[in-house]
From TrEMBL:
GO terms for biological process: gluconeogenesis; glyceraldehyde-3-phosphate biosynthetic process; glycerol catabolic process; glycolytic process. Gene3D superfamilies: Aldolase class I. PROSITE patterns: TIM_1 (PS00171), TIM_2 (PS51440). GO terms for molecular function: triose-phosphate isomerase activity. HAMAP family: TIM_B (MF_00147_B). This is Cytosolic triosephosphate isomerase. The lineage of its organism: Eukaryota, Viridiplantae, Streptophyta, Embryophyta, Tracheophyta. Pathway: Carbohydrate biosynthesis.
């Protein structure tokens, strides 16, 4: 089964109104593979979602970086899935390691958020990944399997889910999982989906890699058979994000 390459740009807590407009201008002017080759989704901070959606080229989509676990109400500072849909935002990133570690979001809480967002029709980039201590202790697969299990328990329709494997030790550190390391975990995740969810879901679900992805390393990573794209952090704010999008052609040539 051919899985369309997916490139997400997580802008995190960065940018001013003027900087965001400049980034969008660079994206709009870029020559990249067509929509049938690569799906591109960028995720600006909440306050810039409407302006980015309004200015961005139509073949790129927009994602929020988080949403609340249930319907809105007395939850100061939160943004509900209903609000995102109301302003036309189709995607949301959930379970990012920064939220898991800094805000103590548990596996179960992330699973609940994923399930609720999907139930309303949002598409979800669901993040998983181990810390350096967990990798060095040999528990990588136990950790990501537990994270994936909590998500899978709340998912009945996988077509709107992209799994993002982001080893925590590689996020923003300049350290990158080698192509072999990335492929190893992605393959094991696909096996987990096969054994615990089903063969069709395992074959069709896109598993993307995140963690210091750059224009320099993206092609080699993209060449791995079970790496279906990237969730890009810092590099998504720079022109090299275009090179990362273009790495989709590596997959097409295989």
């Amino acid at each position: 089964m051919v899985r369309k390459f997916f490139v997400g740009g997580n802008w995190k807590c960065n940018g001013t109104a003027e900087e965001v407009k400049k980034i969008v201008t660079v994206l709009n002017e870029a020559e990249v593979p067509s929509e049938d080759v690569v799906e591109v989704v960028v995720s600006p901070p909440f306050v810039f979602l409407p302006v980015v959606k309004g200015l961005l080229r139509p073949d790129f989509q927009v994602a929020a970086q988080n949403c609340w676990v249930r319907r809105g109400g007395a939850f100061t500072g939160e943004i509900s899935a209903e609000m995102l849909l109301n302003v036309g935002i189709p995607w949301v990133i959930l379970g990012h390691s920064e939220r898991r570690s800094l805000l103590n979001e548990s596996n179960e809480f992330v699973g609940e958020k994923v399930g609720y967002a999907l139930s309303l029709g949002l598409k979800v980039i669901a993040c998983i990944g181990e810390t350096l201590q967990q990798r060095e202790s040999g528990s990588t697969m136990a950790v990501v399997a537990a994270q994936t299990k909590a998500i899978a328990a709340k998912v009945s329709y996988w077509d709107n889910v992209v799994l993002a494997y982001e080893p925590v030790w590689a996020i923003g550190t300049g350290k990158v999982a080698t192509p072999v390391q990335a492929q190893e975990v992605h393959l094991e995740l696909r096996k987990w989906l096969h054994d615990n969810v089903g063969a069709e879901v395992a074959a069709s679900t896109r598993i993307i890699y995140g963690g210091s992805v750059t224009g320099a390393n993206c092609k080699e990573l993209a060449g791995q058979p079970d790496v279906d794209g990237f969730l890009v952090g810092g590099a998504s704010l720079k022109p090299e994000f275009i090179d990362i999008i273009k790495s989709a052609t590596v997959k097409r040539q295989q």
